[in-house]
Amino acid sequence: MAHGVNPAEAPWREAVAAMVGASSVDLEDVRREPLDYDAFLAHRDVHRLRGAAVTGTGRRPWSLIEKVTEGPATASPYLLDNGRREHAAYTSGLLEDLAPSLVAPRLYGSQVEADGRITLWLEEIRDEAPRPLEAESLLAISRDLGAMAGRWLDRVPSHPWLFTGWIDRHAQPEAMEAGLATLERAKTPSSLSWTGREGESQELIRAQPRVRAILEALPQTLCHHDAVGANTLRSGGRSALIDWESVGPGPVGADLASVLFASVRRGDASAHVVRSLVEDAFDAYVEGLRSEDAEADVAAARRGCDAAICLRWKLAADVAETALEGRPARRGSAPEESPEQALEELTQLVGILLDAARRVL
Fold first, then answer.
1. Which CATH number is 79's domain given?
2. I need a labelling partner for 8 at 20 to 30 A (CA). Which of 106, 130, 142, 349 fits?
3. pTM of the predicted model, to two decimals?
């Protein structure tokens, strides 16, 4: 629901002026609309701001995305760290030239208040891709992610605020013991359609130190580290990535794992679609990679993608626990999906996970 805003109280006036290319503007008919954004993270708000800008040359409509992270008095350290990193990424200029075919929204203004509250005023990019993502969009996104990886291969910036803890974030070492126990229970007759693969899933958990070693030995590039479908838009023939809160170094191939695997887990894509185009998506990624670095190591990219998928072992334990306890399965971006459909999608995704493990391990 849109709400009217008093233009006299608008701290984003300069951001609107920057967007329309004017030294100053008067604002009319300003409205604020809340947008859904990671509802489980308290103290983060995202709104669309829109209205009309009146300048010396006329009146024109405008819209901006306002992203607010509260300060340390209320926001969690995790959320605050992410907000500070994204602010640094935008204000440093890092995101202004990522790759010819991949962009970040333009930053039109920002504000860090005395209490640590961070606000970004960003370009609104209208997504042209159907949802859930179909094959054509997934292949285009894969190609553009490859181009970004090639642009930054072995030349990742050294900014101290870049995110380096991505392996532990995905691998969740603190949950491994419980995951092994759940999968052991799942070896008894159950309703799991992948019964018989619990042992493979346990072996994948035990192999996590090896997975880490593989990833750390690969050529490094600049990664978004959360290139899930919800954060990946298609507009004007290019891909646009939003939410740069986890940007940092990572192995070539890692972002492809996010768009293929994490998109299915969230409900931004179907496991059946992804499973049928894994090879084509990798070929598209390599096409983009080689367009920016003709000497890029294709085998390293494949190992990076497969090993990054292998970090997501917890899916297998989560699916087993859901089936064993009879809980309804769900994927957050597919609320209309039945629990039976969600469980089937996630079970298929376990197959993608274990296929990657077989290839890389």
1. 3.30.200.20
2. 106
3. 0.93
Q: What is the pLDDT of residues 59-92, one digit of tens each?
A: 999 999 999 999 999 999 999 999 999 999 999 9
Beta strands across the sheet bearing 102-103: 102-103, 238-241, 232-235
170 with 225, same domain?
yes
Give residue 326's region: left, alpha or beta (phi > 0; psi -120 to 50). Answer: left
Tokens for 115, please give them. 């209490």
If asked whether residues 153 and 234 sit together in one domain, one would say yes
Asked, as a colleague might, if the bond just before 132 is cis with ω within 30 of 0, I would say yes
- The boundaries of the domain holding residue 48 are 3-123
Q: How do residues 126-170 score in pLDDT, each as one tens digit?
A: 999 999 999 999 999 999 999 999 999 999 999 999 999 999 999
Rounded Cα–Cα distance for residues 253 and 104 (Å)? 19
| Last residue within a domain, chosen from 123, 155, 189 | 123
Whole-angstrom Cα distance, residue 207 to residue 361?
A: 8
pLDDT at 194 over 70: no
Q: How many domains does the chain have?
A: 2
How large is the C-alpha radius of gyration of the chain? 22
Is 156 within the bounds of a domain? yes
Q: Beta strand pairing status for 238-241 and 102-103?
A: parallel
Asked whether 256 and 146 are in contact (CB, 8 A), the reply is yes
Out of 123, 143, 174, a domain closes at 123
Is 166 in the same domain as 117?
no
